[in-house]
Amino acid sequence: QVRLVESGGGFVQPGGSLRLSCLASGFTVDKYAIGWFRQAPGKELEGISCIRTESDTYDVDAVKGRFTISRDIAENTVYLQMNSLKPEDPAVYYCASTGYICQSSSYNFIGQGTQVTVSS
């Protein structure tokens, strides 16, 4: 059974850091592109980072230079290192498989999400 499980969310002050993890089962993370999406209250789901290979990654402008996506194939896990968190970053963060290429607006299957809260 294909499954993605996110973890690592929590509460952090502005300027702080969190590392999100996305553990895959039922497939290997090097088979598909894996993206991180987020949904803030009252807003649509948006794709923010994606990895297909170590040299093929994608970040939207809002997180570029602050967030870094990576993966550990041996652990079958994709990570999102989030630094310099801002008040506009709070959301439920999801990881999802987007198929064989990175896509920011669609996915094949998605995890249950992890909440990130940024507040002073």
Structural class label: mainly beta
Distance between the terminal alpha carbons, to the nearest Å? 40 Å
Poorly predicted tracts of residues: none
**Radius of gyration (Å):** 13 Å
Number of helices: 0
Strands, count: 11
Report the sheet-strand fraction.
Answer: over 45%
The protein's oligomeric status is: single chain
Principal-axis shape: globular
H/E element sequence = EEEEEEEEEEE
Mean pLDDT: 96
Query: Largest sheet at a glance?
Result: 7 strands, mixed
Helix content: under 10%
Structural notes for this entry:
The protein is mainly β and 120 residues long. The protein is 0% helix and 52% strand. The chain has no helices and 11 strands. The protein has strands at 3-7, 10-12, 18-25, 33-39, 46-53, 56-59, 67-72, 77-82, 91-99, 109-110, 114-118. The strands form 2 sheets. Strands 2, 4, 5, 6, 9, 10 and 11 form a 7-stranded mixed sheet that branches. Strands 1-3-8-7 form a 4-stranded antiparallel sheet, with no helix packed on it. Strand 5 (46-53) and strand 6 form a beta hairpin. The model has no long low-confidence stretch (mean pLDDT 96).
Write the layout of secondary structure elements.
Blueprint: E1 3-7, E2 10-12, E3 18-25, E4 33-39, E5 46-53, E6 56-59, E7 67-72, E8 77-82, E9 91-99, E10 109-110, E11 114-118
Parallel strand pairs: 2-11
Antiparallel strand pairs: 1-3, 3-8, 4-5, 4-9, 5-6, 7-8, 9-10, 9-11
